[in-house]
Specification:
Length: 439
């Protein structure tokens, strides 16, 4: 059987990643010094393009989108060839980052930094090289933005701690983490593994790229790594990895108090049987002192899940201790979608079935609605979602019924085969969420 060119290319970069990972694992203190040359390789740039296209996203400050590149006369090949030459000749320079704002669940706005597509491709190429190196250093308590790691695994780790009786929780919230990482301290963390000065210079350029915001003068960037940058999640993990290390060190709560740390990017909880004020003070001193970050004390909470009706919200789930009805002395950890997650889902369904989409064919609206429901259900099917699924199903049916009635002044009529609106909505193909769908 012949090996295609694409298969050989994937095999080549996969082999490179494997070698880098093995070297990093064998020699924990080794600093890599010949990485930059890989960035101009054809196979790596093609894989980086696939990553950027898969992630999607809007155009940067140059207003050049992924679709624009695909439709250009030079095409993808010409675009990547240009990047290759700039990287090889060391003439590549990132453009300013475009700042946009997206709404948060609390009604506030979250700033996003959008690099150009070209900058995202180069970042993806370097990410592909750096990731296997730092993966050998990261600890098991870290779950966010890592290969073969997931939010569900983080939830399982929290459940495990609760079952061990570690019900006292320090639920931390960092204020604007991605935008507040000190550049000098972040670069020192990167330099523990990377000695290649060309790579380090490239990362500094991305970090210090000016911020462009419509209607405002260009502003310099002296802190943070922009959310929206392909390499930003890895850099964010590299920085907080050292918090993980110190936490589990000889003088940290992981050793002194046998506390458990579960971290998903900048969201983390600390769990112990006895969460003393000393542990909370240690966390705040390290985060705000050594790491130069800010703890949002309004949102950071200390709670005891052994208390009645006390619960922990993390990554969209609510977790609490429950007693088995037939055997009250037996307890278990119950996880289900949080109220915030349910409300966000309702808002999304309301948007899909709003009057502004009344001009669209019903089958297109149903398709969009089902795609969202399957994705939401796939994430939240874990644990005990039945009650929440029922609430969503009832809300979806109500919204679809109202959507159908608005399409005509006389209202939409049922098919002769449907004697109820429930059956009519099923006939149109609107799905009903059940746990069985995802197991």
């Amino acid at each position: 059987m012949e090996t295609t060119t694409e298969q050989r290319e994937i095999s080549g970069i996969a082999s490179l990643r494997e070698k880098l990972g093995q070297k990093a694992k064998r020699e924990p203190k080794f600093r890599f010094y010949t990485l930059y040359g890989h960035l101009s390789k054809d196979d790596l740039l093609q894989e980086a393009w696939k990553i950027v296209k898969r992630n999607g996203g809007s155009a940067g400050i140059d207003n050049v989108s992924i679709m624009d590149i695909e439709r250009s006369s030079a095409g993808i090949a010409g675009f990547l060839k240009g990047i290759q030459e700039e990287v090889r000749d060391k003439t590549y320079h990132p453009k300013p980052v475009k700042r946009v704002y997206i709404p948060k669940s609390d009604g506030k706005l979250r700033p996003l930094g959008i690099p150009t597509v070209k900058d995202r491709v180069v970042q993806a190429a370097l990410l592909y090289i750096m990731e296997p190196i730092f993966e050998q250093d990261f600890l098991d308590c870290s779950f966010g933005f890592r290969p073969e790691r997931s939010a569900h695994q983080a939830i399982d780790a929290i459940k495990g701690a609760i079952c061990e009786g570690k019900t006292q929780v320090y639920d931390a919230d960092l204020k604007g983490y991605f935008d507040s990482i000190p550049h000098d301290k972040l670069m020192k963390a990167v330099e523990r593994r990377i000695a290649d000065q060309h790579v380090l210079k490239l990362i500094r350029k991305w970090l210090t790229a000016p911020i462009w915001e419509e209607g405002k003068p260009m502003s310099p960037n002296d802190r943070g790594t922009p959310q929206g940058g392909v390499i930003s999640p890895l850099l964010a993990n590299i920085y907080l990895h050292w918090f993980d290390k110190i936490f589990h060190g000889t003088q940290g709560p992981g050793t002194m108090a046998k506390a458990v740390l579960v971290r998903y990017a900048d969201d983390f909880v600390i769990m112990a049987k006895y969460l003393t004020k000393r542990i909370a003070a240690w966390v705040e001193e390290e985060i705000e002192g050594r790491f130069g970050l800010t703890i949002n004390r309004e949102k950071t909470k200390i709670k005891d899940l052994a208390g009645p009706k006390e619960c922990l919200d993390f990554l969209g789930f609510t977790m609490r201790k429950e007693s088995v009805k037939s055997a009250p002395w037996r307890q278990y950890c119950k996880e289900q979608p949080s109220k915030k997650s349910l409300n966000r889902a309702r808002e999304e369904v309301r948007g899909i079935t709003s009057p502004k989409n009344g001009y669209k064919p019903i089958k297109d609206v149903v398709k969009t609605l089902n795609q969202y429901l399957r994705g939401w259900g796939q994430y939240f099917h874990k644990g005990y979602p039945s009650k929440t699924f029922s609430a969503i199903n009832a809300y979806v049916d109500e919204r679809v019924y109202r959507f159908l009635q608005r399409r005509s002044q006389r209202g939409c009529k049922k098919s002769p085969d449907s004697n109820t609106w429930y059956r009519e909505i099923r006939r149109l193909g609107v799905i009903q969420l059940t746990k069985r769908m995802f197991t």
